Amino acid sequence: MNKDRKLERGLGQRQIEMIAIGGCIGTGLFMGSGKTISLAGPGIILIYAITGLVLYFVMRAMGELLLHNLEYKSFVDFSEDILGPAAGFFVGWSYWFAWIVAAIAEIIAITGYIAFWWPNLPPWISALVLIALLLALNILSVKAFGELEFWMAIIKVVAIVGLIALGLYLAVTGFVSPSGIQARISNLWSYGGFFPNGISGLLLGLQTTIFAFAGMEVVGTMMAEAKDPEKMIPDAIRKIPWRIMIFYIGTVTVLMMVTPWNDIPADQSPFVGMFSLVGMIAAASIVNAVVISSATSSSNSGIYATSRMLYGLSKNHHAPAIFGKLSTYQIPTGGIFLGTGLILSASIVLTTTQSMMSAFELVGTISALIFIYIWSMILLAYLVYCKRLPQAHDESAFKMPLGKVMPYVAFAFFGIVIYALTLNDDTRIALFVLPVWFIGLWAMYRIKTRRSTKQKQLIADFEEKVAAQNAAAKQYLKKS
Q: What tens digit of pLDDT does each residue of 283-294 get?
């Protein structure tokens, strides 16, 4: 490994967009949408729209900050530059942890999907094989990784587009009911109204929605590997949130048009029911394959994000130097090995528990909470930047729209989400677990700063001693 190597600018526009979409669209849509529909009913459309809109403005704030200084490699860099070293340390390590936890949730889910075909296969074997595959994908050159991730993400996009097209066909042709397209559209409000479970249903659906949308900000970790960041990052930020919202909203809308929301099972993928309606006997297997591919793609994006985050933390002296070294393929393999090792260890432990789905929900909620923290810190950095550098903000070529209002709207929304998590026993646990992480981070930062201060003092004392010796030597020579 050569310490002078730099990350390769090998990611093209389509690869950046698909890595972000791949990281965002996973089990949250393919499996979690059934549970969210059971909680919120057709109101899930509003939840997805509001969440997507809020995160669009978070992305725009991130984009303006990244392009303000092209030396920034990620949102950790601008957090540290604008908010201080402690902010960079907390944001970087928290983002790393969020993706580790999210990937664990995806791996746990995948072992359950694989059991659909091989029910007698021990879950730890599925986890081991999958992690080995992800490790192999990530130690390739970034160009090869980006190409593989592009095609993995394409599978899920094709599946979603196919589902939306099939749902529209079933609705327009009267395949399910000959009573007319108006009657099928009225499925969205005919079974208890658009908000059948009231405000409480909307609040309870927020947790899975946040977990489903988490990952859009992975674009902010690609600055150093994008071929043309000034052009590609803004283009990706403009497109990705809207595409994801269309995928999510389009999918659940056609699902509830064809099948009344209260007939969609909470513990199964609603995709299976949709394909089964047209007599596809192999529908369950097809959806299972798509979901496995989707979750694998999301986990893959997670390992990419964690390794690049550790690389950036190391370069900023917030992580051991080994994570800042690159392989001959210009890949930060230290972070990749650490990430895959932790994900494998935790997944094996959790998949051997009696309550696998409870473990999935817990780690998913913890991940969602940390993503809320990351998004909030991006907005806080944006507000400080606008106040401290008003001229740079005014002259920005990629200025965040409604920048004076939307950060505060986003903060209010995140506060509502956190309140919603207190309403459910399963999600409430995460609120008590998460402080342990931040207390641990604070302790690490204190140890790091004390050690750094001590090292600086030792260096200063040594330099002072050398200076004194030099002065004494000069004095002696003069006397001689």
A: 667 777 877 887
